[in-house]
Specification:
Beta-carbonic Anhydrase, Chain A, 2 domains, globular
Length: 191
């Protein structure tokens, strides 16, 4: 049986038994918060529990490393939409210790891509299109610096509502302990 079929079989029972009812909420985050965090599997349930978040409390956006790599990319667009259309009022960027993006070099990804059948001619095509593949696939050296960089990308965005708190945190994926890297209230005058 395929992974997809296993999912669909479970889903049929989930819907038939109305297990979805306990998760029903609105599209607006109860705690007025939008979070960017890493896609690391250890954070899927740990992060919301460590922050006392329940289903419906926050908009959670996930990507590799909780990195905003472009001010007008899909991550920043999602944050802007959450702030203007979905009633979020604060932003949290949350990286984590032991992240797979820490120390990641593009040659590692490209080598594995080639091993899985991607021709290096395709990589050259991407480069020809103006994308610096080595920078695009590169990780970071320190999670705190990466979080600060993403916080700055949000804070300096021309469409960010004035005085929006933008926080930066790092979570321990073993214990759930959160450390503050940037207290967004320090820059807004709130507390």
């Amino acid at each position: 049986m395929t992974i997809l079929q296993t999912i669909l079989d479970y889903n049929e029972t989930f819907v038939k038994e109305k297990k979805y009812e306990e998760y029903q909420t609105t599209k607006f985050p109860n705690k007025k918060l939008v979070i960017l965090s890493c896609m690391d599997t250890r954070l899927t349930e740990l992060l919301p529990r460590a922050m006392n978040l329940k289903n419906g409390d926050a908009k959670i956006i996930k990507n590799a490393g909780a990195i905003i790599s472009h001010p007008f990319g899909s991550i920043m667009r999602s944050i802007i939409v959450a702030l203007y259309e979905l009633q979020a009022q604060e932003v949290c960027i949350i990286g984590h210790h032991g992240c797979g993006m820490a120390g990641l070099e593009s040659n590692s990804v490209l080598s594995k891509a080639e091993d899985r059948g991607v021709s290096m001619e395709k990589v050259e095509t991407v480069a020809f299109a103006g994308i610096n593949v080595n920078e695009w696939l590169k990780g970071f050296s320190k999670v705190e610096e990466s979080v600060m960089h993403s916080v700055e990308m949000v804070k300096k965005h021309p469409l960010l509502p004035p005085n929006t708190p933008v926080h930066g945190l790092v979570i321990c994926p073993e214990t759930g302990k959160l450390d503050t890297v940037v207290d967004g209230y320090d820059f807004t005058g709130e507390k």
